[in-house]
Model the fold of this input.
Amino acid sequence: MIKAYVILTVFLTVSISAQTHELLKHNGEKIQINYNKTERNLVYFSIPNSLEENSVSQYAVQLLTDKTTGKSQIISSKIDIKDQNAFREVVFLKEFETIGLKKGEAISVFLGRTKGYSHYDLVSMKKRRLQEKAAKKGSPFVVITSESYDETKAVLYYY
Done:
């Protein structure tokens, strides 16, 4: 009876820790995972045979496939920036949303002390110029690191 209990326990443990999903990133990397949830633009998962919960930006993940049913779910579409005219496709992220993306170079925008513009107009102008600079360099993601009245600094991120 004890042997049957041990065997049953081993089978349950193996089935619980089995790889249930496959994660395909936009850079082509495939990872075997146990999917937990998607929340706040992050995909939470654990590596098989590990209790530690990991996360990756949903912008870095293309596809999540359930290995038991074979169903696939598109997490995000790849943003392809070909030239400066595609600046509207550049996405602003927060620092915690960049897990799994590659950090690029730092950029900045300086407007000077402009008169006659509202705060909202100045912020919009700075963001648009950041998007234009990012598109010129082929980066689909921008994270603003510091912002003052006349200058905004940011970091570019890639797949």
Summary: The mean pLDDT is 89. The first helix runs from residue 2 to 16. Helices lie at 2-16, 119-136. The longest strand covers residues 30-39.
